[in-house]
């Protein structure tokens, strides 16, 4: 009989940035690590979110022992409100992560009774044949952990998202000695964060940002508006520290920022001297140089307070000449265009905007090349699989491993859905399962397919043409010339002749129908066909064409 193998299956986060989700399966036990979302790319029109396809898990529901969450970022927890109702298994996370998940589930009104369990960094849980140890790592959100997974076939180390910061603003520095111990014991497989595998050197400590924020806030003549991710709790802490030092008050703006600050205060991950944090309605009458706002919007999110302010669309807040706006975040690739649009509007309204390299007001939360090599060197895994990144990041990380002496046959660059099968001595990719994107559009999950996306893409690019065809109720013959109405396709005045010509074309086509009244399905197709070709020849565009029949 074949010996049981351990399967490692990424359902998301490999070959893309976001929607991280990893499955580990051994005989009758499955554990899931993270359940994240991805924000849609520009060509995914009107889709709000993207989450992993979990068909594989739904078919093996009875084997699933639990979901383990490494930290509270959206790309690790964001799919939970959509997936938990389908999976209904216990969830294990550290205290802050737990708090953030609870807020999220409440927001989405996901049915209560979800089994959420708190595990402290350093704590252990046993799920079936897996024993999982949470080890503290430094990252851009407190209470982040990596995982040491003891399996019947060997030890697996999952780095989570991490950087190696020996002077973190909150929490403890990474426990390198524990990892070294494991390295000496023997680690079967290392899964490690590749997000910044292209960056040489070391990622600077969060502490550097504190010094920069201090300088900016000390020198700002008027109000300061700091924009960052609401989950960057240590950054918010540093804003509070600097504000307090210069007798400024800090006003959280926007729901997600306000919620995170509240929960982080409650759970003890944020500390603010009395009277520093204030509600927005207390801002009246305060001198401008006593005010700091913290808000989301660093990625150009259209509904965020910052973007609204930039567009003069915020109910309470307007940009004033002399404001200083600090982007304490770097653009997530793909967001640059919308971010710079906001930056432009902010400048136009008289704000001083600090973004990009002007001051070190942001550092990454992910390890750069030297830190990645350090982890590989300390853990000394038999096999290595880069995770969390687009294909190029994964490849780059694999090359790093090879540069420090790992052989290419022990390094596995996988993509979502690939199955890596492990025995104590060997590893190989043995197949592929169904995986992919599930689109969340407003309240509906999963009923937007690629066809709908393609339609939306065509609509947005080439517009729409409606053809109204009047047919005689008795004879089934065309009455008059068809009408053509267009939106977003061509300038109807300039292209008048072309549109007229297309009306004639439809009329001529339908007149050829002979005596027998043609079937509507046939007319429909024929009209689309003929117009498609005609419009493409004339304009090189492919509008969506909708023929309508009116019986008269
Ligand atoms: Zn991440
Ligand atoms: Zn993260």
Question: In terms of topology, how is this protein built?
Answer:
Elements: E1 6-12, E2 21-26, E3 29-33, E4 49-52, H1 55-58, E5 64-68, H2 74-77, H3 80-87, E6 91-93, H4 95-107, E7 116-118, E8 124-127, E9 130-136, E10 145-151, E11 154-158, H5 176-185, E12 187-193, H6 206-219, E13 224-227, H7 233-245, E14 249-253, H8 255-266, E15 291-295, H9 305-310, E16 324-327, H10 336-348, E17 352-354, H11 369-379, E18 381-387, H12 391-403, E19 418-422, E20 427-432, E21 437-441, E22 444-448, H13 450-462, E23 464-471, E24 483-487, H14 496-511, H15 520-539, E25 544-551
Parallel strand pairs: 3-5, 5-6, 6-7, 11-12, 12-18, 13-15, 13-16, 14-15, 16-17, 23-25
Antiparallel strand pairs: 1-2, 1-19, 2-3, 4-21, 8-9, 9-10, 10-11, 19-20, 21-22, 23-24
The structure holds zinc ion (2 copies).
The site of one zinc ion has 6 residues, from α2.
What does this structure look like?
With 552 residues, the chain is α/β, with parallel strands linked by helices. Helices cover 31% and strands 24% of the residues. The chain contains 15 helices and 25 strands. It has helices spanning 55-58, 74-77, 80-87, 95-107, 176-185, 206-219, 233-245, 255-266, 305-310, 336-348, 369-379, 391-403, 450-462, 496-511, 520-539, and strands at residues 6-12, 21-26, 29-33, 49-52, 64-68, 91-93, 116-118, 124-127, 130-136, 145-151, 154-158, 187-193, 224-227, 249-253, 291-295, 324-327, 352-354, 381-387, 418-422, 427-432, 437-441, 444-448, 464-471, 483-487, 544-551. Helix 6 (206-219) packs parallel to helix 7 (233-245). The chain is globular. The relative contact order is 0.12. The mean pLDDT is 89. It binds zinc ion (2 copies). One zinc ion binds next to helix 2.
């Amino acid at each position: 009989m074949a010996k049981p193998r351990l399967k490692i299956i990424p359902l998301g986060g490999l070959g893309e940035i976001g929607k991280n989700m990893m499955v580990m399966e051994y005989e009758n036990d499955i554990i899931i690590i993270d359940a994240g979302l991805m924000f849609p790319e520009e060509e995914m029109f009107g889709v709000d979110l993207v989450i992993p396809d979990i068909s594989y898990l739904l078919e093996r529901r009875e084997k699933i022992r639990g979901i383990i969450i490494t930290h509270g970022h959206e790309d690790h927890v964001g799919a939970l409100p959509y997936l938990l109702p389908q999976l209904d298994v216990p969830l294990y996370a550290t205290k802050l992560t737990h708090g953030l998940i609870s807020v999220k589930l409440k927001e989405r009104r996901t049915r209560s009774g979800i089994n959420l369990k708190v595990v402290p960094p350093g704590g252990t849980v046993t799920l079936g044949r897996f024993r999982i140890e949470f080890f503290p790592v430094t990252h851009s959100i407190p209470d982040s952990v990596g995982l040491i997974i003891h399996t019947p076939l060997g030890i697996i180390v999952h780095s989570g998202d991490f950087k190696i910061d020996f002077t973190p603003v909150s929490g403890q520095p990474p426990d390198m000695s524990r990892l070294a111990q494991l390295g000496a014991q023997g680690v079967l497989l290392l899964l490690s964060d590749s997000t910044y595998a292209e960056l040489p050197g070391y990622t600077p400590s969060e502490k550097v940002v504190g010094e920069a924020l201090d300088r900016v806030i000390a020198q700002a003549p008027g109000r300061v508006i700091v924009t960052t991710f609401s989950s960057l709790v240590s950054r918010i802490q540093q804003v509070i520290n600097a504000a307090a030092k210069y007798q400024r008050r800090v006003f959280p703006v926007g729901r997600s920022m306000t919620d995170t600050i509240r929960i982080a205060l409650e759970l003890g991950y944020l500390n603010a001297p009395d009277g520093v944090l204030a509600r927005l309605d207390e801002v009246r009458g305060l001198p401008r140089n006593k005010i700091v706002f913290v808000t989301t919007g660093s990625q150009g999110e259209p509904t965020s307070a910052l973007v609204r302010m930039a567009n003069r669309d915020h109910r309470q807040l307007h940009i004033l000449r002399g404001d200083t706006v600090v982007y304490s975040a770097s653009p997530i690739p793909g967001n640059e265009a919308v971010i710079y649009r906001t930056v432009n509007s902010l400048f136009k309204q008289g704000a001083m905007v600090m973004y990009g390299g002007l001051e070190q007001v942001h550092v990454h939360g992910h390890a750069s090349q030297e830190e990645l090599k350090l982890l590989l060197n300390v853990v000394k895994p038999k096999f290595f699989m880069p995770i969390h990144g687009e294909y190029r990041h994964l490849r780059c990380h694999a090359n790093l491993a090879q540069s420090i002496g790992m052989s290419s046959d022990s390094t596995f660059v996988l993509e979502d859905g690939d199955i890596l099968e492990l025995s104590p001595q060997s590893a190989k990719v043995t197949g592929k399962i169904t995986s992919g994107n599930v689109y969340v559009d407003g309240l509906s999950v999963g009923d937007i397919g690629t066809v709908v996306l393609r339609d939306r893409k065509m609509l947005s690019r080439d517009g729409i043409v409606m053809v109204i065809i009047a047919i005689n109720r008795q004879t089934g013959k065309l009455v008059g010339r068809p009408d053509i109405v267009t939106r977003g396709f061509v300038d109807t005045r300039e292209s008048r002749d072309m549109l007229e010509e297309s009306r004639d074309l439809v009329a001529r086509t339908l007149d050829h129908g002979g005596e027998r009244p043609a079937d509507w399905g046939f007319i429909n197709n024929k009209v689309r066909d003929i117009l498609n070709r005609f419009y493409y020849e004339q304009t090189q565009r492919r509008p969506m064409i909708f023929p309508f029949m009116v019986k008269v």
